[in-house]
């Protein structure tokens, strides 16, 4: 899921930064197949979310909920299985969380970091 969200977000981030019409058309094509905005609460979710990354989520704050599930799995793969690709994906994913500009995503991420630090300290000094 993280890889798919990352690929989608490449086009989205490029569109947000440059306003590229080719990326905009790709996002519109994908979003029309993901959502039916004209039927859901009066054009919610919008076809394109200006200035914020939302990836496949209906809105940027939902991305924080998805990240709450994905980031710990990436940490596990990095720390216990020593995967290099997941490290790059984790850095990119954290970048995407901050690109959402959503308080929900940011608070969830910092909460997960705090839990990671506390659990790491507890496991290290429990002996």
Note down, in words, how this protein is organized:
The protein has 127 residues and is mainly alpha-helical. The protein is built from five helices and no strands. The protein has helices at residues 2-18, 21-34, 60-81, 84-99, 103-125. Helix 3 (60-81) packs antiparallel against helix 4 (84-99). The relative contact order is 0.13.
Keywords:
5 helices; 127 residues; mainly alpha
Give me the secondary-structure category: mainly alpha
The sequence of SSEs as H and E is HHHHH
Unreliable stretches covering 5 or more consecutive residues: none
Number of helices: 5
| Overall form | elongated
Strand content: under 5%
Oligomer class: single chain
Roughly what percent helix? Answer: over 70%
How many strands in all? Answer: 0
Which sheet architecture does the biggest sheet show?
Answer: none
Mean pLDDT: 86
Q: From the alpha carbons, calculate the radius of gyration and give it in angstroms.
A: 17 Å
Terminal-residue CA separation: 36 Å
Topology diagram in text:
Layout: H1 2-18, H2 21-34, H3 60-81, H4 84-99, H5 103-125
Helix pairs in contact: 1-2, 1-4, 3-4, 3-5
